[in-house]
Design brief:
This protein is mainly beta. Among the domains are: 106 residues, no CATH class; 39 residues, no CATH class. The protein is built from 2 helices and 34 strands. It has a 16-stranded mixed β-sheet that branches. The protein has a 10-stranded mixed β-sheet with strand order 10-13-15-17-19-21-23-25-27-28, with no helix packed on it. A hairpin with a 2-residue loop joins strand 33 and strand 34.
């Protein structure tokens, strides 16, 4: 026992000598390590900041907001880019959590002064109110303490009425010529307070190693997540939830002729009684959208409504009440090489509306589930596309197989469908549906 006490005393003395400040919050959160700084003096670390972890608590003041505190840390000449700033110990008692100064007030801009050093900022739980959009510099990571809907269980960033347009968070600013990299937002909530025209997160500048993960977007009257030109190779955008606050709300949008991303992987879109028109807009090539739940939007996923779309995939899409068309393939622009897999209406009126390849009378697939629906490419100048589906719906053309012959003249589901008898012999192997009945081909 004596030896143990001496060992503990030696550790305590060693810590005191180097001026370590341990974060008061739990060590297991986010990055998992305690924050440190060296040469402790007065209210904070004056020199020799650690390039690993830095506790923001000694820099805080009950009269200074969290944005100004973070800015002062990063703007110091001794701050090393890439440092993890642990602000999890900031609370409403030791710091103001409202960034609402009359002049520009963000962690990277204070009035006319700005800083663009890379960092990882571990935000505290609580309600952080912002009056200006946060534009994160190259190499910046924002990590919250949870993505619940209240400040008690989450890092909640809330827009104030000073924000009238644009987005609450912008991924990248002042990027080099090739664009920003390593910009991410995760494990937090954004509350738009229903402000007209205000969206959640936009990415038009950050590409490789840039992503959004575990973010709850609610009270958003604009677009929750906007990914557009300049964000090629970004993502994935995963584990997202969105709740509308107006009929103008859009859950997510991917646009731009070169915006090829790592896709959206896991998103729940809720109309919240406002019945907005579109939940998700896909207007870019080479993207995947998967593990989606949509309820309360007129159209679930609209493909090609604003631009051409090629080589895209929609997978594991589930609808809900008040959804008319869970997946809507627009005829406004060319949609080719689109694969849809695993659709479940779950209360939606129609699983798929195909305006691209079908006439008005043959647009809808209203099966409860659809395993596969594929659009290929237009066949020359003819008004025809290669198309295949596993749906037996009368508005779908299929090629099915079986082990027995069909009765010639018996009813068939859709003209143009084919059937192959794998045990067939001459005159009972291949059939086509024509005029509503099966005819023998070979």
């Amino acid at each position: 026992m004596k030896r143990s006490k001496n060992m503990i005393l030696a550790v305590v003395l060693s810590v005191a000598c180097i001026g370590v400040v341990v974060s008061p919050t739990r060590a297991s959160a986010a990055e998992g390590n305690n924050a440190i700084c060296t040469n402790l003096s007065g209210t904070g670390c004056t020199t020799g900041m650690s390039a690993a972890f830095l506790d923001a608590t000694p820099f805080a003041s009950p009269t200074v907001d969290i944005c100004a505190t973070l800015f002062s840390i990063m703007n110091a000449s001794t701050f090393i880019g890439g440092t993890v700033i642990d602000a999890r110990g900031l609370t409403s008692t030791n710091s103001k959590l409202t960034c609402t100064a009359a002049t520009t007030d963000t962690p990277w801009v204070q009035n006319t002064a700005s800083v663009a050093k890379a960092s990882t900022i571990l935000l505290p739980p609580g309600n952080i109110q912002i009056a200006y959009s946060w534009a994160t510099p190259n190499g910046t990571r924002l990590v919250g303490e949870g993505n619940g809907s209240t400040a008690l269980s989450a890092t909640l960033i809330q827009a104030t009425s000073n924000i009238t347009t644009g987005f609450m968070l912008q991924m990248g600013t002042g990027c080099p010529s090739g664009g920003c990299t390593n910009v991410s937002i995760e494990n937090l909530s954004l509350r738009g307070n229903g402000l007209a025209g205000v969206g959640g997160i936009t990415n038009s500048l950050s590409h490789e190693l840039s992503y959004v993960r575990r973010v709850n977007l609610f009270g958003i009257a604009g677009t929750g997540l906007q990914v557009t030109t300049g964000s090629t190779n970004s993502g994935p955008y995963s584990d997202l939830t969105f709740t509308a606050s107006a009929s103008t709300s859009v859950c997510a949008s991917i646009s731009g002729s070169t915006t090829t991303t790592r896709g959206i992987q896991g998103i729940t879109c809720t109309g919240n009684g406002f019945l907005p028109t579109n939940a998700i807009l896909l207007d870019s090539p080479n993207n995947t959208i998967e593990d989606v739940r949509i309820t309360g939007f007129t159209a679930g996923i609209t493909v090609g409504g604003n631009a051409n779309v090629q080589s895209a995939a929609l997978m594991n899409i589930t609808g809900g009440t008040n959804v008319t068309n869970l997946i809507q393939i627009s005829s406004a622009h060319a949609v080719t090489d689109l694969a849809i897999m695993g659709v479940f209406k779950n209360g939606a009126t129609n699983a798929i509306q195909d305006l691209e390849t079908l006439p008005a009378s043959k647009q809808l697939i209203n099966d409860t589930t659809v395993g596969l629906y594929v659009i290929g490419e237009k066949m020359g100048t003819a008004a025809a596309y290669s198309r295949f589906t596993t749906s037996p719906n009368a508005n779908a053309v299929t090629w099915s197989t079986g082990t027995s012959a069909l009765t010639v003249g018996s009813a068939c589901p859709s003209t143009g469908s084919m059937y192959s008898n794998t045990h067939g012999v001459a005159n009972s192997t291949w059939y086509v549906c024509t005029g509503g009945t099966w005819a023998n081909i070979k």
